[in-house]
Amino acid sequence: MGLRETKKQQTRRAIADAALPLFLERGFDQVTVAEVARRVGVSGQTVFNYFPTKEDLFFDRQAEAEDELARVVRERRPGSCPVEAVRDHLLEALDKQGQPTPEGTLYLQFWRTIADSPALRAREREIAERAEAALAAELEQGAGIPAPLLLAGAIAGLRRAVQRELRRRAMARESTTTACRHLAEATRAAFDTLCHGLHRDSKIHSNEA
Length: 209
Prior knowledge:
Elements: H1 3-26, H2 33-40, H3 44-50, H4 54-58, H5 62-74, H6 82-97, H7 103-115, H8 118-140, H9 148-171, H10 176-198
Helix pairs in contact: 1-2, 2-3, 5-8, 6-10, 8-9, 9-10
């Protein structure tokens, strides 16, 4: 990576890092792009050069989020079940989020900021739809994967349900550690049911791999 590209990435990261605390403290709709620009010491146009909309600034890792499910399936062990690959990835994430660290408070603030903003809720739905579409495209390339479009919807829907329930419990002030532990059990059961049902006769089922 060249020096110019490195500097651009550093500037982008500095803008996003300056914006998030403002959004979490005061709410997305109460913070302007001009305020973020002043905090970093750049012009408002510079911010828009990196983030075309304020929603892009909040979801600064949107591209990663949209590709996450497809990436997990793409990088899974050859011959293994894509449902199980996503299940294990989600269980790992729940285990990490359930650890008693300062990040737990940050997650809660992040979720509350989204819940309080219609614009962010709409963007989050768009991200989820694109993530599902990317997953469907990845599954369609796999040999022997039955009903890839339906499978993508089922996988993505289960993940959204887990994330939604985790947020609900956290925002109801339930211990994140407890919530993640309980959700991990339910997540494993739900994904295993999906895997065994849709891949009953499939060669890609991990038990036959």
